[in-house]
Amino acid sequence: xxxxxxxxxxxxxxxxxxxxxxxxxxxxxxxxxxxxxxxxxxxxxxxxxxxxxxxxxxxxxxxxxxxxxxxxxxxxxxxxxxxxxxxxxxxxxxxxxxxxxxxxxxxxxxxxxxxxxxxxxxxxxxxxxxxxxxxxxxxxxxxxxxxxxxxxxxxxxxxxxxxxxxxxxxxxxxxxxxxxxxxxxxxxxxxxxxxxxxxxxxxxxxxxxxxxxxxxxxxxxxxxxxxxxxxxxxxxxxxxxxxxxxxxxxxxxxxxxxxxxxxxxxxxxxxxxxxxxxxxxxxxxxxxxxxxxxxxxxxxxxxxxxxxxxxxxxxxxxxxxxxxxxxxxxxxxxxxxxxxxxxxxxxxxxxxxxxxxxxxxxxxxxxxxxxxxxxxxxxxxxxxxxxxxxxxxxxxxxxxxxxxxxxxxxxxxxxxxxxxxxxxxxxxxxxxxxxxxxxxxxxxxxxxxxxxxxxxxxxxxxxxxxxxxxxxxxxxxxxxxxxxxxxxxxxxxxxxxxxxxxxxxxxxxxxxxxxxxxxxxxxxxxxxxxxxxxxxxxxxxxxxxxxxxxxxxxxxxxxxxxxxxxxxxxxxxxxxxxxxxxxxx
Length: 585
Ligand SMILES: *[C@@H]1O[C@H](CO)[C@@H](O)[C@H](O)[C@H]1NC(C)=O
Ligand SMILES: *[C@@H]1O[C@H](CO)[C@@H](O)[C@H](O)[C@H]1NC(C)=O
Ligand SMILES: *[C@@H]1O[C@H](CO)[C@@H](O)[C@H](O)[C@H]1NC(C)=O
Ligand SMILES: *[C@@H]1O[C@H](CO)[C@@H](O)[C@H](O)[C@H]1NC(C)=O
Ligand SMILES: *[C@@H]1O[C@H](CO)[C@@H](O)[C@H](O)[C@H]1NC(C)=O
Hints:
Elements: H1 5-17, E1 30-33, E2 40-47, E3 50-53, H2 61-70, E4 76-80, E5 129-132, E6 144-148, H3 154-163, E7 169-180, E8 186-195, H4 197-200, E9 214-218, H5 221-224, H6 227-236, E10 238-242, H7 243-256, H8 259-271, H9 280-292, H10 295-307, H11 309-313, H12 323-330, E11 336-337, H13 340-353, H14 360-367, H15 377-386, H16 394-410, H17 416-421, E12 430-431, E13 437-441, E14 453-457, E15 463-467, E16 477-482, E17 493-501, H18 504-509, E18 519-524, E19 533-535, E20 538-543, E21 547-553, E22 558-560, E23 575-579, E24 582-584
Parallel strand pairs: 7-9, 11-12
Antiparallel strand pairs: 1-2, 2-3, 2-5, 4-5, 6-10, 7-8, 13-23, 14-15, 16-17, 17-18, 18-22, 19-24, 20-21, 20-23
Bound molecules: 2-acetamido-2-deoxy-beta-D-glucopyranose (5 copies).
Residues 220-223, 247-248, 251 line the site of one 2-acetamido-2-deoxy-beta-D-glucopyranose (NAG).
Organism: Poecilia mexicana
Keywords: Disulfide bond, Signal
Protein name: SRCR domain-containing protein
């Protein structure tokens, strides 16, 4: 979709947030020092422009939990004492905080009870440390996205808002915080903002132009804290959005009818999709997007789940995936899976688990989305004995397998209109299995000076190493694909060469013209192909070995990686997976 200037801004901000050290520390930030592991060390807290350590009096696991969570680890393994990670030197002679007592539920260490800044009776031999659970590191920290929908004048209007002078319209944000008063009615907290009718007349929601002079908006306690910034946005059309404020702002933008804000905040929300490895929040965001009719957010959720389908099928939410979500995933050609047989297997077990709640028609509707002609021939032979549902849907399987055989044997005689007619059935998805793809782990590629060792790791499919004596020709990996299930082509193995260029120096050293870096190259080495096959290949970027953050097509064998990744990644050591996709034309 086209990017408005405002979303360009957003992508710019994202690009910057990927730089590792670009973020200035803020009051109350914590960090770990004195250890080579990022998940353990001496606790230091930022206060009045300086980092200071924390005293170990009363230091225990609930304090460590808060520190680890503040650092985006999901939990703590241990709270350590007596300066096990060395003594801090940064904060004068004493510790910053002493007698820290967290309940464990706090968001930040500064929110915990303590004897106060610099008030303590200990020295640096008592510096506290933590060991966090390294496995559960969330990949993205809270970033700030500055949205600017203003044209001109906005600063001046911001001043008018801030001063509150001559305001004539009261906006009350009212919550019920859950506690009941003695008479049984829920207790409410209110926050009233005085605004200007002249501005609010621009927004029909407030009815300021038809003579109203106040309005009450119901919000929950969390969202109440963003009421000032959203009303200020009505004046300035500028707002800073973070992952933590995004849900509230999205909801308020929807309520106030602020379409542009609604959509852009939806995009910020979609950037946070990789944050949850359990897929719980992706599915609930999908449901929320459907409910609020944010189609861009809905599509982004579905796309993320399609790209990371294999992880989704292994996640706890898989069994309870909403039917219509599963249906829309299975229609997609950008579903990333080892091969089509994998899709059939996971769908069959999903249906088997949910058999009682699905009608026979619903099961058939789902099974029809399997691209049987893409299933390797040897798997088709076994289908009748291996399939969980063959006997329950005999007709469908017979027809589909027959159609697949016909394609395998006769594909070169099928006409274009016959192929088109069958929708996606003859079109590969993005297959990452053996006969379709290879992978290069870019973190193992050395840039200059050259090293003579290259390691290419097949993502999820075992690994192999290469050692070049000298000189190393290039980072090029060659691999073979077959025209998959097509029996008639079994002998026509295709040989491909795949390269990753991390920098433009890498390109020029290999004599390749790159218009930007990083870039990936995929070229076919043999040229004896039948003319009715065309390749629509893809390169996939896997971030931190965890999730696919970008998929791009090739143009003239090259794919220049777009710096505005579809889903953000904290570093650029991607695994590049090259997926070959033959299409029959
Ligand atoms: C609800 O608000 C009242 C009054 O502001 C406060 O005393 C009470 O602790 C709040 N309850 C919760 C659960 O936050
Ligand atoms: C809010 O507006 C209504 C009518 O629009 C009026 O009756 C009421 O007094 C107003 N409340 C305040 C606090 O101004
Ligand atoms: C957004 O944050 C930046 C940097 O902290 C600040 O300069 C700017 O005023 C903020 N904008 C708004 C609308 O709050
Ligand atoms: C408040 O509402 C927001 C937006 O709908 C939601 O994300 C958040 O979880 C809610 N918070 C509470 C405490 O219910
Ligand atoms: C699938 O089965 C699980 C329990 O096994 C159930 O909770 C879930 O709602 C079912 N899903 C559908 C779409 O019927």
